[in-house]
## 1
Amino acid sequence: MELNNDEIRRYSRHLILPDVGLAGQKKIKGTSVLCIGAGGLGSPIALYLAAAGIGKLGIVDFDTVDYSNLQRQILHTDADVGQPKAQSAKETIQGINPNVEVVLHHTRITSENALGLIRPYDIVVDGTDNFPTRYLTNDACVLLKKPNVYGSIFRFEGQASVFAPHLGGPCYRCLYPEPPPPGMVPSCAEGGVLGVLPGIIGCIQATEILKLAIGRGGLLVGRLLLFNALDMKFRELKLRRDPECPICGEHPTIKELIDYEQFCGIVPEPAAGIPDEVTVQEMKKALDDPRLGIKVLDVREPFEYEIAHIDGVPLLPMSQLRQRFTELDPNQQYYLLCKVGARSHQAVEFLREQGFKYVKNVRDGINAWSEEIDSNVPRY
């Protein structure tokens, strides 16, 4: 794997590093990386790996660019809104370094395609934001003996590690044997994230990849790095391989990929409407015609209500519902609204447990209202 004169100029600051040099840069050029996700974490990962001269970079992403992505997903620009993230990522990467081979995978990674996607690459980097994909990525990497460079972010906190049982360390399941109950951990869309945070964690992941490529330095194998942006503090936890781990332990029971949506307790939505759900059109009818006797409640938090709300819909935050549900009439019919429908679904389940028979969730929440009913209501 030789470097041409243009590459020698481009990577000169690497070449004069004693721990990289010409030999190390050739190794970087000879390394292939699969980046799962071209979002908040995938952006700095892909940008810095491309700039560093990684030889082959695969991008797995099925999503399109949204305005709400631009606060942190620096692979994409305003002009890319509505375009596939993978394609937008490729254009940005090649603008930084046309020497990098970019391979696009416009698909969702699943149990059916994960092994085929991962097998051709040397290193896998996890830039995802959901538990089924994290467990799937972990298990596929363990089965194929590929290093899994992990990162996650939420609000002001992030964490990073390198899961590689074949290098003597633990896997993701050793750290988190079971996923949290569905809805227990909000997504970034529900809980928010500081825009610069994925840049910090993604750069740490990119650093680990380059160290893996050149074979130098102390890796985050067996270590979990925790970062708190508000306090500007790093902490480190030592991780040990679990001998009882079902995939990397002494007697593994997982020998092929499983149904990760089911494992994480996520029930797929049926094709038809869910009995306990209504559309924003049905909600509008209830607001327009008081004779129907239906009340709509917003269960988001006050700071969200300040950003966007619907006239005539009072606020009863989910965080206060357990203390204040006695203020509600159990014989009244209620439609519950949140941002995208997740928290309001939980609120419906809670109220049903308390004896409320006539409560329904507004599907896709206030975002759907903004898109389908009233665009003057901001979508955030």
## 2
Amino acid sequence: MEYRNLGASGLRVPVLGFGAGTFGGSGPLFSAWGSTDATEARRLVDICLEAGVNLFDTADVYSAGASEEVLGQAIRGRRDAVLISTKTALPMGDGPADWGASRSRLIKSVDAALRRLGTDYIDLLQLHAFDASTPVEETLSTLDALVQAGKIRYIGASNFSGWELMKSLAVAERHSYVRPIAHQVYYSLAGRDYEWELMPLGADQNVGALVWSPLAWGRLTGKIRRGQPLPETSRLHETATFGPPVEDEKLFDIVDVLDEIAGETGKSVPQIAINWLLHRPTVASVIIGARNEEQLRQNLGAVGWTLSRQQVERLDKISELTAPYPYFPYRRQEGFARLNPPLV
């Protein structure tokens, strides 16, 4: 397993992390992902650690805290061997204090997460979304205090826009608060919007990307084909509206090229899609999920080999999207590109 420093920090993370969204699954979204219990979760954690995957990502909102609880049970007795990443800010209830990143909410959320996880510290706490109703200074000063108290060790963001992340970084620098080192983002062959602004920002400010849904919400598993109905077992029947949109014909074109490369390499479609991400700028770790041991071992096969330059170029070309304004001139016009050449 390869390890990379996460952003501007000394925290070394594996290039593959495990997403615990399937743990304790309940509710309309997470029950469709999976309902792994503590015994099954412990086996999946065993397999991850054997492969060198020691980063486990969850969130308080995953199954209303059940994911954190099951993860805590699965790592019991080996806390020092793992890195725990969790997230907060999204609503956990209907009350006025049940959502957001205010001082009171963050303190309450961190204490609750620590109880559910059965630990006295969180390695990486990420804000699951930007809370526009709370001053950034309040949020970051609270996170800084939680770091000083030893309850969390590093902080990050998730699903922020460029200006939201940059404002957070600027406020942290101005007041000497602890700085976000990670941005957990959606990025896949079928969804490359991360590249327009967030990737250059991450490169410039040294904020590492943790990639969620590398298989485009289950669309790059190799089971979804042109002219064929969704498999009966696909979670997209229940969850498609929750995830990022994908234009069907574009998706099928990408899958066609993935199929070709699968034939050339002997690797599976998901392995190729994940491997492509591992070599993109700013990507520190790709968060993989699995409902069972077979899926996990399949996804772990995405590391330890490299696509050829020609194969990468084919995937780049078929998955390329037209950048929105103001980014498209820097991609299409030589004068603009000379001033701001793309990272990819």
